[in-house]
Amino acid sequence: MRRFCSGRRVLFLPECGNNFGMPQVQLPIFPAGVTHINSEVAFEERDGKVYYFNGHLPVFVHEKSALGTFRLFSTQLVINGNATQAEISRAFGVPLVTVKRYVKLYRESGAAAFFAPAKKRSGSKLTAEVCQQVQGLLDQGLTVPEVGREVGILSNTLHKAIRAGRLRPGKKKIYPTMR
To answer: What span, in angstroms and rounded, lies between the C-alpha atoms of 50 and 70?
Structure first.
């Protein structure tokens, strides 16, 4: 896969090692001047704000960096029949599947879903039994990497659980001083 940079889009060159495994947020593109979404609706970015127009009348404004507000308003344009999903996708340079995903989110969960904090996933490897076993080993004075090898869990996973408060850090080993 070889995509070149156009405007503010990301350049993906797998041969250079930047084909990221995690999906990245596709930000909307707000070019200078008035851009028509269709014959009725247009938008303009001015002074860090995005203004939306129906005909020549302004109907909505939000900060350029307010991604949740952008998603909500563009979804409402689709829901209310003012624009199609394809028109929103073309006008803002976001993938069509992203527009469809947010329309579905709005229909299922309402406007508050765009401003809710991201859901945290729980560790599937650290069940209650495994946590007890790991905590016992940590309390015995084993280091996190030693516990990880013993239990078969990456030490990164254990460090994350310690930072999240699901595990207590083990006792520090005290080594005798050399004289």
So the answer is: 9
56-96 pLDDT tens trace? 889 999 999 999 999 999 999 999 999 999 999 999 999 99
Please state the domain count of the chain.
Answer: 2
179: three-class secondary structure by DSSP: coil
Same domain, yes or no: 75 and 103: yes
- Domain of 175? 120-179
Report CA dihedral (147, 148, 151, 153) to the nearest 10 degrees.
160
Cα distance from N-terminal residue to C-terminal residue, the chain: 61
- Considering the domain architecture, whether residues 157 and 110 belong to the same structural domain is answered as no
Same domain, 105 and 128: no
Cα distances (angstroms) measured from residue 1 to each of 9, 14, 15, 27, 147: 15, 7, 9, 20, 40
At 62, is the secondary structure helix, strand, or coil? strand
At residue 67, φ and ψ (nearest 5 deg) are: -65, -40
Burial class, 110, CB count within 10 angstroms (exposed 0-12 / middle 13-18 / buried 19+): exposed
Same domain, 102 and 157: no
pLDDT digits (tens, 9 = 90+) for 151-174: 999 989 899 889 988 888 877 766
Q: If you compute the radius of gyration of the chain from its CA atoms, what whole number of angstroms results?
A: 25
